Amino acid sequence: MLEWSREDLAERSGIHYITLCNFELGHCALKPAGARLLRLTFISAGVLLIDADGSGGPGVCLAKPVA
């Protein structure tokens, strides 16, 4: 959606590249602070995180065009 590489996400979020790789591969869970950083990084880039509710499941969409 954002066309970011892992390296881009690591740089933008401040989370180490290896940590992101291990998380993506299911080898570890993120600490709450790391999960919060990822969430804030995506939100600041215009990603809208949609919580599950009675009418549908969780999801994502782009809230604004990527600059």
From TrEMBL:
Source domain of life: Bacteria
UniProt-listed Gene3D superfamilies: lambda repressor-like DNA-binding domains (1.10.260.40)
GO MF, one example: DNA binding
Record protein name field: Transcriptional regulator
Organism: Pelagibius litoralis
